[in-house]
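Field: sequence (string)
Field: structure_tokens (string)

Example rows 1 and 2, in order.
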Amino acid sequence: MTHPLEQLRDEALREIDSASDGQALETARIKYLGKSGSISAWGEQMRTLGKDEKPIVGKLLNEVRNAVSAALESRAANFRSQMESEALGKMDVSLPGTPHEIGALHPLTQMWQRSIEIFRRMGFALADGPDIEDEWQCFDALNTPPEHPARNEQDTFYLPDGRLLRTHTSTVQIRTMQAAPPPIRVIAPGAAYRRDELDATHSPQFHQIEGLYVDENVSVADLKGALEFFMRELFGAGTEVQFRPHYFPFTEPSLEIYVKSKALKSGERWIEVAGSGIVHPAVFEAVNKARGDKAYDPEKWTGYAFGLGMDRLAMILFDIPDIRLFAQNDLRFLRQFA
């Protein structure tokens, strides 16, 4: 003899199969599996069944509920598939698609990548450090005296706790020497910050690549060889490079670097592009004190350091008249470098 639940299942399956649309299918779902539905009502009746009958009816109820649920899902999937087919059938594939503009690397990013690739070919590894530093990392370790103008609040962004936004990425050179003994050969790309008025050639945030090479018997000749190679790879084989004496507290001797190249759109003339020099022994002594050893004995180790302004190099190489263009996100400007 057929159980009433089985009869209810067959009735529900016939109604689901004959449903003409999604609304009819939802009506059938509510009728059988809704809170007050016929199948759901059997769940309420379970408490009135005898001890022997309850497991038999309970098992059958689960089977009926699962069968009806599966039928509902299958029929709903058929309706969805049908709707998608009808929508695709109305689509005119001959119409042109919606164009998507393909982005390009920012000119500063292009400058970063070109510069890093050249230095990597010379054996330099990448090093990184925090943008927020303390005075020791930014000034004291780099032999910058307390009265130096760079330490003035008019020139440097100080935080309430005494820390500051690094004024150069030379801080990464100090951190690298603290972390590892010589020899080392690293470049430190990153942002730096100074209290400059924003105009065509100055910005309170700018970008640098600073380099450091420490080994035995490193000389000015090594420094000149590396930077001449870099400048000629960047500006062209015919680029002339000139080194002029200068002063930096963390190098001795110190040199400014000038280039003259036919690649410059503004004309072939001498342009200052970087600062460099032989690492001052006082810098090595400060690092030794922080490390608690004599790993960087200035009697044994020498090194050179340099700093390149990415914004300035990009402005020179791409003939960009205003540094503010890098941050304005003007597509008319950026598309020139796509």
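Row 2 begins here:
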Amino acid sequence: MNITGKEFDQLADLIRKNYGINLGSQKKIMMVGRLQKILEEHNLKNFGEYYKYVLSDTTGNAASLLVDKITTNHTFFMREAEHFGYFKEKVMPHFTSSLPDRELCIWSAGCSSGEEPYTLAMIVDEFLGVQMALWNAKILATDLSSKVLEIAGRGIYLNEQVGHLPEIWKRKYFHKLDDEKSVLVDRIRNEVIFRRLNFMDSVFPFRKKFHIIFCRNVMIYFDAATKKDLINKFYNLTVPGGYLFIGRSETINRDESKYVCVAPSVYRKE
């Protein structure tokens, strides 16, 4: 099944306006490949009919499925490990010595299938040790895709996915289910709260500000205006002295935000 230029532009514009994701014309083949089965299941003759189907679906399920199909959720444990090193060696000592209420708020924004927030949870648990029970150090993990959030909530991963983690982590934080899969222990899973969030929402439903925000390899899909708006939202949701981590291939220009760069792709609110 082919997609016309008009049909692609309609769907791409719908995705951009509602979810902030830019799909260049080179994504036509990808769109056809990922959506063709949906058209067949609903007896839709072309992508024009599919576009009308998504618009007319008042439940929102068709739009959610569209997002699940076109978003790429590539991640793995300890991705861009330098960030986790900085988080453990610089950020954690700073906040654990300066927060008298012992409440640490962390947000993994664009958490995909959960490897990033669970890695943060393991680092926090390891750093605090026996003091962990005295802290409220929950991690909020959000994503646009309901599908990956469901996967993340299970906390189950292939053994090869956790194979390169430190041996002590594998023994301490995982239980082998069988020869193929392992599951995170409950206390680490319980430290992470998963929620669906669209970055294009005008207001984010958070009551408190965050000490640390991780939003890595997400803004590469946004245009300049959307990216700038999101960075300013992050800034307003960061406590003074708090940190924002972005992807190593991403940058924040000085005219986009008041954040100060303190390390490669690590920014601080002064």
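free_text_note (row 2): The mean pLDDT is 93.
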